[in-house]
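can u do me a favor
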C-alpha cells in the first residue's frame, strides 16, 4: 500500500510539473538548510568536548588516585539512542560545573570486560564517585534528568 501511495504521489508531481511549465519542484540542499537554520550558539555549545573518553586503566587510576572533585563515569555505547541524549546532558553539566566535577565516559563495546566487572547491565549507566573514600558511589541506569544529576552532585557528593 505504501509503495502504491508513493508511486501515485510521484505520478501526481510529474503531471503537475508538465501542467505548469516553468515551475520546478525542489528541496532545500544541505547548504541552504545550514543558512536557514543556523546552529545554536552560547554557553552550552562548544567546539571541543569536555567529557573525555577513557580506557579502563585510566579510569582505575582516577578512582584510586587523589582527587578533590567528584568523578562521574558514563558507561555508554555508540549505537545507544539514550546514551547520545545523555552525552548532550553531560556536556552541559561539564560546562556548568567546569573544574568542580570531572566527567569521563567509557565505551562498553571497547571496554567490554571492564563494563562486566562494573556490573553494567543497562545503558547509559552513570557512577557518581565522591572524592571522599568513606562515601559510597551512586549508580544510575537509564536516561536521567539533568536536575537529578545536579542534585546528586550537590547533595550526595
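np, heres the sequence
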Amino acid at each position: 500500500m505504501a509503495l502504491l501511495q508513493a508511486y501515485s504521489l510521484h505520478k501526481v508531481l510529474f503531471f503537475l510539473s508538465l501542467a505548469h511549465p516553468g515551475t520546478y519542484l525542489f528541496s532545500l540542499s544541505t547548504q541552504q538548510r545550514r543558512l536557514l537554520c543556523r546552529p545554536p550558539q552560547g554557553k552550552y555549545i562548544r567546539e571541543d568536548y569536555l567529557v573525555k573518553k577513557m580506557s579502563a586503566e585510566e579510569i582505575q587510576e582516577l578512582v584510586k588516585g587523589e582527587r578533590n572533585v567528584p568523578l562521574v563515569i558514563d558507561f555508554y555505547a555508540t549505537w545507544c539512542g539514550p546514551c547520545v541524549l545523555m552525552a548532550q546532558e553531560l556536556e552541559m553539566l561539564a560546562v556548568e560545573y567546569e573544574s568542580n566535577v570531572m566527567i569521563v565516559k567509557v565505551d562498553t563495546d571497547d571496554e567490554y570486560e571492564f563494563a562486566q566487572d562494573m556490573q553494567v547491565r543497562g545503558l547509559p549507566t552513570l557512577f557518581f564517585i565522591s572524592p571522599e573514600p568513606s562515601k559510597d558511589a551512586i549508580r544510575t541506569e537509564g536516561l536521567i534528568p539533568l536536575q537529578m544529576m545536579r542534585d546528586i552532585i550537590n547533595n550526595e557528593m
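Confidence is low (pLDDT under 50) at residues 1-7. hope that helps!!
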